[in-house]
Amino acid sequence: MDASSTEGDSSPAQDPALTSRLAQLDHATAALRDAPSFTKNSKVRRVLDSLHRVLAQKGGCAAIRERAAELDGAGLFEGTDWSQPDILVPGFVGPSLRSGQNDTVVLEATSELRLVAIAAGEFTHPAISADDARRFLSQVLAMNLEVLFTPPSESERVRLGRTAYLIRDLFAYVAEQIGYDSVLDELVEEIWRILRQRPIQVEQVTSMVTRIAIYRDDPSVDLGNSGQGLDRLITALFGTTDSCREDPGVDVYRSRLENMDAGALQFEAGGFARAMHDTGLVSPYHATLVRFLVENNSYGLPEALGLSETGRISLQRYPELVHRLVLEAVHPETAQCLYGLALMLDRGILHQPPIVPSLWRQIALKLSPAVRERMTLAFGPSPDPASRLLGGLLSMLGQPLGVGQGDNPTCQSARALSMWAYNDPDYLLQMVVWAARDGEIVMHFEGQPLSSTDSVGGVATSDPIDLDPVSLLLVPHLDRIYAEMVRRCAGRPGDPHRWVNPEFHGWWAAREFHINVDVETGKLIDLDDFLRQFHASYHPAYNGDQPLIHPQPAGVAVTDSAARYVGWHAITILRVAADPDGVMRVYFFNPNNDSGQDWGDGVVVGTAGNGERAGEGSLPFDQFASRLYIFHADPLENGEPENVPAEDIDRIIGFIERSWGADRMPADTVTAEGSGDSNP
What we know:
Blueprint: H1 16-34, H2 40-55, H3 60-66, H4 68-74, H5 93-97, H6 102-119, H7 130-143, H8 145-149, H9 154-160, H10 163-178, H11 180-195, H12 203-216, H13 230-238, H14 250-257, H15 262-279, H16 284-296, H17 301-305, H18 309-317, H19 319-329, H20 337-347, H21 355-364, H22 369-379, H23 385-398, H24 411-423, H25 425-438, E1 442-445, E2 448-451, H26 469-488, H27 497-505, E3 512-515, H28 527-538, E4 552-559, E5 565-578, E6 584-589, E7 617-620, H29 621-627, E8 628-633, H30 646-657
Helix pairs in contact: 1-2, 1-4, 2-6, 3-6, 6-7, 6-10, 7-10, 7-11, 12-13, 13-15, 14-16, 15-16, 18-20, 19-21, 20-23, 21-25, 22-23, 24-25, 24-26, 25-26, 29-30
């Protein structure tokens, strides 16, 4: 690491080029500071250009950090999200720095250096404390760890040029100032936060754990002494038991298994099962062990899968099917599906009459050439695409709340897949057959057939590729059908989801539809009645203590950490219950890959510690209601809307007024400036 980038080493003034550029920056900053507000925009350009030149110089990061208070006070960040450091999102820093837009790169880099100064106590910012600034920087570094330890790739050098090195200099300086110990602590916390939600796709996590394992073994890399929680993750993947502690490779491990007696195999099985259920991660060695047991000692399989009593009964009832599923789907490359298989058995769904014959059909299914090509393009040729798809199906059937939409605007399709895996798994299995064998899915809308091959297009502008195998296969078809259903509703009054949701998701989507936004104007309507009806339909105190029978589609207005409206989003209401502290909460499925989000104004979605099951997000009932804009209810179950206290309704409306409803309130109740907005 460059000595000139550390505080207290050689002064930046010793470099004539840096001295000249700093003089230009100081002059531009003073001009910005002294400019009246209506001319500040014209002065920002010189400051941004000067900052870019300083960042390119050795010692530039330290020099900008010393000027952070002056730059902030001069108004550099005014009119941008960076003006509110308390609402910045660590996950956006890396993409901003790699955006290729010079102004974005400069503002992001300067903001990080401002936070270094705040963390060091060099100046006080009214919006963020020193501890919060340090925590934010630790999270940023944890999410961009590879930048600290690896040089730019060839593609990165071509696309970003000198900026690729500027980013590394910036992160190296920040890490040097706050220390690597806190970085690893944040990294461990973030990994476990994601894993507690038990996503199907864990490639990003396993890649991160793998990189950390490599760095920790590299004597040239000093990661400090913290982050010890990583040991559980590293051993879960690479050294779960003594027989594979040194990560010998699956072939060597297989040869060791052949020399073990029954007691040693049972010890191996128990060790892997505990690690899998502890972390949600599956080692390639675990897949090797399970395949060996199926072929040589199947009595050890329940122990190796860590099955509950329900799972053991399922395995005892259908051993031939389970053994075949292992041999066809479970390979070192697809080891993760072993967790899905275990949870599928524990769910007991094999006892539903259509499931076992459907799985036998899936094992024998021949994929169409186009599907084989798409699977190979996404996941590689090994194992066979049919095995890859079967493994993905086991994961989805075992982890219905682990489905994610990836970086795609396809929340409706992801929600449908999760709902079918959760509530109607034989329908999901049928969908997979149609798409994989025939290259077509046909659904019906109000009695009329809709083919996925006839639709003119879906919400997504291109076929997604960052998905699990089942989603990769089905989402393009479902997205086109969903979009066609919406088009069929053109000209009807109100929101099309009134008709689309029950037809798209299934008969259990209740037919009474409530919305609190006028589609034509974007204004809020009938808020009091909407909120009372939601209580009467879902809150146990007002619906006769009736638990939710089937998962229900709903729509929320997503807001950022400053409670500003971001967009409409499809979710599934799963249940309403009191948490361990007695607080009534709504537990729901969010298909956006990570349910843990800060929606502002104290509305922070929980994923653990509040009675959540793996994959659920939750909010207190009133906070959830404050972000809700669409829900379905049974028209024959009326509840007691009139008994909901007025103060509860007023509290929820207060949340709405302070967030996404600020400029949507009806004219007679507006409490915030502004009016009008885009339609929902």
